[in-house]
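Example 3.2
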Amino acid sequence: MTAFRLVNPLQMRSKSIAFIGLGRMGSEMAYNLFSKTFAREQDARFIVCDAVEDNTYKFCNNFAKQFPGAQISIAQTPLEATLSSRTLITMLPSTPHVKSVYEENVLPALASLSPDIAHETIAIDSTTLDVSVAQQVATKLNEIGVTMVDAPVSGGVTGAKAGTLSFLVGGSEEAYIQSHPVLSLMGQRIIHCGPSGAGLGAKICNNLMLGVQQIATAEAMLLGQKLGLDPVVLSSVISSSTGNCWSLSVNNPVPKALPELSPPCERDYNGGFASSLMLKDLRLATDIGHQTSTSMPLGLVAQSIYADMIKDDPNLENKDFSSVYQFLSKK
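Structure, written as tokens:
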């Protein structure tokens, strides 16, 4: 660990990028961001931070081997990462983690810096979380002159690894323009959705539809097989008809239904978007629906199905959410 220990946090702050949160998505996003930045600026400094220390060491060790000469270090806390970096990206599990990282670490760190140095900072949060909390955090950073955008992603682990993510950005036009060069190193489509919180709103609406679609896809594939249809044939028919959707044509839940692709079902539903995260996003959607008096009958049903699934079989919690097919097949 000492080989990657961060020393002199304020030194080279203007050329430093910190990434906090090295989960399945974050580690791939950080790798693309750092490697592409290093190819252009070999004097750049990279800093990582994660609640699981072993994640940071593995990431740094791998990156240093692939990019000899790259300056990469481990921050022990998000506070230390913030002190060290003008550009800060966070990719965290959920709302409580964002509140903790920003309110207990990022804000105090920025407040300890001189205004001139703090004002140079840009914070990008790609977590999917409660819209109101994201807006509150952004307001607090804006009040001390720091630029912040919410920039949740679409594209999953596959898109993160390939650098083809879509970023749904919420913030001022100026903040969007400032964040664009950073986000473009990790994704292909950078969409300005509106003011603070708008990126999250778009992401939550998308995942509301996605969660419902995946259940409907599972139901259709189960029904088709009961009627004697070959899953390959049924998938081909629907994918060229009005029922086509990503949940069928890319994330098909039936093994061998997409001979030319390899969705998570081909790996025992490993390596995709965890069912627990889909449940989290559906809860965010239905909570906002309640707050805005929006009727959401399908969203509520989908939420209860994923909740029952995880309760019934905890092993499915970290499996791709298309494993709802397995859950429904046993009913």
